[in-house]
Amino acid sequence: MNPFALFEDDTDEPDEVEFVTDTHRRRFVALLIDTSRSMAATQSNGVVAIDALNRELARWLPTVRAEGRGPLRDVEFVVVTFGAGGVSVVSGDGTPSAEDGGAFVPASRLELAPLVAGGATPMVEAVELALSLVEQRRRHVQTVHAQQTGGPRLILVSDGAPTDAEGNPTDDWRPLARRLEQWRSTGRMRLFAFGVPGVDDEVMRALATASGYFPLADLDLRKLLDLILVATSEHVDFEQVRSQVYGDEFW
Questions:
Q1: In a domain, 21, yes or no
Q2: Which intervals hold domain VWFA (predicted)?
Q3: pLDDT value of residue 167
Q4: Three-class SS of residue 163?
Q5: How do residues 2-39 score in pLDDT, each as one tens digit?
Q6: β-bridge mates for residue 76, sequence order
Q7: Domains in the chain: how many in total?
């Protein structure tokens, strides 16, 4: 699969630090990664899942940075993990500061330290944090930098079901699903959810809708990361991602 087949060819340099142009719209992508204890137990091609994920991230990140000098030049990422250590911002300077961009980093400079698996699955808390951060950042860029912004995209990856901080099952995802539906109805956000084996399909469909949820048959982390990159494109919709996931079976 070529994850860039849907991108237009554009090699202009990004506005990485200074907001000096209004010719492009700043866009915000929140990537939420499940790093709960199951990622330390599950294997992918004979390798512990979290180790396989770190290996694939090392391959994937240079590609993201390269695309950040072209098709993704206007994208700022915030990466949030939920699992080991609870909910953590692992992008930017690692602090949940949206106004000065502390949690955010341009695609051309995205770096991530190796991820660690363990703990519960506080998915709801992670999504709520991401929603808050992208909304704060959007308002800041519009008011302080007077720059247009595109609709934020949330990309959720999980292999389990939401729990509270102690690992107990929770139904807190139900009110979150209603809140997400309100955001969608006003065009303020689009959520792409990728479920790998072990995920709770009901929860993922409720959060992302049937259109925005993409269950994967196996734990192919390389394919997953390539699909995430496709989903960051401003001009890619659910149907195009679905065709990348399922190929001719979709049609």
A1: no
A2: 28-236
A3: 92
A4: strand
A5: 444 433 444 444 444 444 344 468 899 999 999 999 99
A6: 28, 106
A7: 1
